[in-house]
Amino acid sequence: MTVTNIVNTREIILGALMAITEEEQYCHIVLRDVLAKYQYLEKRDRAFISRTVEGTMENMIQIDYILEQFSTVKVQNMKPAIRNILRMSIYQMQYMDGVPHAAVVNEAVKLTQKKGFYTLKGFVNGVLRAAERGIGEVRFPDAERTPRKYLSVRYSMPEWILQKWLAQFDFATVEKICRGLWQESRTCIRCNLSRAPKETIIEKLREQNITVKEVPYLPYALEISDYNYLQAINAFKEGLFQVQDVSSMLVAEVAAPKWGDYCIDVCAAPGGKSLHLSDKLNGSGYVEARDLTDYKVSLMQENLERTGRINMTAIRQDATVFDGASVEKADILLADLPCSGLGVIGRKPDIKYKMTEAKQQELVKLQRKILDTVWSYVKVGGTLIYSTCTIGADENQYNVKWFLENYPFRLESIDPYLCDALKSRTTKAGYLQLLPGVHGTDGFFIARFKRVK
Ligand SMILES: C[S@@+](CC[C@H](N)C(=O)[O-])C[C@H]1O[C@@H](n2cnc3c(N)ncnc32)[C@H](O)[C@@H]1O
After folding, report:
1. Of 155, 171, 174, 390, which sits most exposed with the smallest number of CB within 10 A?
2. Is 260 annotated to bind ligand?
């Protein structure tokens, strides 16, 4: 890496962090756009950008805690550019062994000057020099005396989320969830078995030197690594697999469509679960994949064309608007609803800072509104699957309880569709809460209801 590159990459990192933290943009989208724009950079510079942006976001609460040990100014009171320069510098000191601390300080000071903050060069230098000397000695909150604060700083998890989880799970489980979300997440793929057998797909992947591993819980789920980008993988271009976490795959598994079933997925984009249902129907039946906007429909359309599905359509339909033509039409209705997404923080670290308790309550209202609108689309005797990619009773168990109290449905055991390792008291009752760090998947919730009259 040349010195010019170091300066440039750090400026790019600062730009990305500013967009995410100050303009509410999504980390994965900002990074995708930045990497597309700077394709000409060397692979290691691109890797440095991704890792520093993602790592800084992932560890921001801890980084701010460390910064406040060395700064007399509170992080929230600093100028946004300055606090982000300091954050990315602390991330490099704390988590990147290969970058000398002295270089981190020098580059931060240069960047401060380059951004026009001449008068704050001394401040940045002072804080980072102090951190350089003292970062190894920082005392973190004590797990026994202040368990919530400890978890919050150790795993950079906002306290309101921890408060809810600690009310539902014991401390050890919450720590496992946090650790699971904090560790690097893997890329899982679902083999489109109606297109090719798993062995053929594995062979094609290995031909391109992609590392392939089996994944627990489902025989057609694989983990892939050592690839450059998805669109360059032949098996992907040929529609032989879909990127999907194994937790999401369990939705269609639990829905268990029978030959010829009519399925409606009311919140379907980008289409992962609809495509899975369609794959399982193997050319029979039908899947109506609905979502709110033309853009979302176009995402599904792309996937439909790539995977060559003939028994599925993507359509624009607002799930909060009653559709009389759908009444008692569905053998299976999938309600994979918009949610707080706390189960996928491992992949999208900024979710944890952007979500608030108030926004979560709004989402609960939306989830209930959608369920209230669509329940009657299910045939009597048909199945409704409710799922979210979040952890916590508000959007999961409490919604199940509310739904059972207000609509003609009962829960149905999902044990027949699960491997032994996932069976429990709740799966027998009809629902499953998957926890990162416990199950080794994203955080995910699935409930299966049968319409009774
Ligand atoms: C959890 S995602 C669905 C993921 C999808 N089932 C899959 O497996 O790929 C929730 C989706 O709900 C959609 N959505 C939000 N509000 C909606 C509404 N009122 N009507 C229909 N779709 C909506 C969002 O656009 C988003 O694509």
Report:
1. 171
2. no
Q: Does the structure show a pLDDT above 60 at 6? A: no
Q: Is 97 annotated as a binding residue?
A: no
296 CB less than 6 Å from ligand 1? yes
Q: CB of 165 within 8 A of CB of 345?
A: no
The whole-model pTM stands at 0.94
Partners of residue 222 on adjacent β-strands: 189, 214
pLDDT of residue 74: 97
Mean pLDDT (whole number) for 156-167: 98
Q: What is the pLDDT of residues 47-67, one digit of tens each?
A: 999 999 999 999 999 999 999
For the chain, give the mean pLDDT: 95
What confidence score (pLDDT) does residue 3 get? Answer: 42
pLDDT above 90 covers what percent of the chain?
91
For residue 336, the CA-to-ligand 1 centroid distance in Å is 7
Nearest to 312 by CA among 346, 361, 262, 239: 262
Tell me whether residue 346 is annotated as binding. Answer: no
Phi first, then psi, for residue 221 (nearest 5°) are -100, 135
273 known ligand binder: yes
Indicate the fold that domain 187-243 takes in CATH: Alpha-Beta Plaits (3.30.70)
Cα(289)–Cα(312) distance, integer angstroms: 7
Q: How far is the CA of 296 from the centre of ligand 1 (A)?
A: 8
CB burial class (10 A; 0-12, 13-18, 19+) of residue 324? exposed
Ligand 1 in contact with 272 (CB < 6 A)?
yes
Whether 257 is in the pocket of ligand 1, judged by its Cβ within 6 Å, is no
**Domain 248-451 maps to which CATH number in 3.40.50.2300, 3.90.226.10, 1.10.10.10, 3.40.50.150?**
3.40.50.150
Question: Looking at the predicted structure, is the pLDDT value of residue 7 above 60?
Answer: no
Distance between CA atoms of 263 and 244, rounded to whole angstroms?
Answer: 20
Name the band, by pLDDT with cuts 50, 70 and 90, for residue 43. confident
Q: Which CATH class is domain 3-137?
A: mainly alpha
Quote ipTM for the complex: 0.99
To test ligand 1's pocket by mutation, which of 291, 307, 315 has the most ligand atoms within 8 angstroms of CB?
Answer: 291
What is the length of the chain?
453
- 343 Cβ closer than 6 Å to some ligand 1 atom: no
Residue ranges per domain, the chain?
3-137, 187-243, 248-451
